[in-house]
Each structure stands twice: as structure tokens, then as C-alpha cells.
Design brief:
There is one protein chain. This protein is mainly α. The protein has one domain. The chain is 39% helix and 7% strand. α1 crosses α2. The chain starts with a strand and ends in a 19-residue tail after the last helix.
Length: 92
């Protein structure tokens, strides 16, 4: 399964739980969210036109989130940040 828009367009930046992991592991918010996707068994598809961000998005194998940290980032909120195939027809 693919994780489309795994960085949620930065909408989670600044969240307390995410910031704590950024500090703990010395990585970016994007790297934590990409790592979370991988540990959930998803194939993350982060988008960036910036070369440094592309490299950072791929540099997520130097740390691993604990099971509790993975669970702590989960949410039951369904708030798509882009086109939602579950609610929008293809011809939109």
C-alpha cells in the first residue's frame, strides 16, 4: 500500500509529539513521518522539488521509532490534505 502525501503538506509540523521525536533523533519532521510510514509497512511517496529535501526524505534509515512512538503519531482523524478518491469522482 502506498502512503500518498505522507508529509501531510506540513500540517503536522509543530505538533508536540512530532517535535519531541525531531529533537530526540536529530532529524526533520518529514524524516519522522517518512520513517513512520515505512514502519507501518507503507510505501511513502513524499513530493519535493528541492534537492536537499529529496535527500533528507530518503535518509531515514539511521534511526527507528519505537512501537510506542509509532502509536503516538497515529490519529483517528480523517483529514485529507489533497484530492481524496474516496469522496471525489475521477472526472473532477
Amino acid at each position: 500500500m502506498q502512503a500518498y502525501s505522507p508529509l501531510v503538506r506540513g500540517q503536522r509540523w509543530g505538533e508536540k509529539t512530532l517535535k519531541a521525536l525531531v529533537v530526540k533523533y536529530g532529524v526533520s519532521e518529514a524524516q519522522v513521518l517518512v520513517r513512520w510510514s515505512l514502519q507501518k509497512g507503507l510505501v511513502p511517496l513524499p513530493k519535493s522539488a528541492d534537492e536537499k529535501r529529496m535527500r533528507d526524505n530518503a535518509d531515514v534509515y539511521g534511526f527507528e521509532l519505537t512501537e510506542a512512538e509509532v502509536e503516538g503519531l497515529e490519529t483517528d482523524d480523517y483529514a485529507p490534505v489533497c484530492w481524496d478518491p474516496a469522496t471525489s469522482p475521477l472526472d473532477n
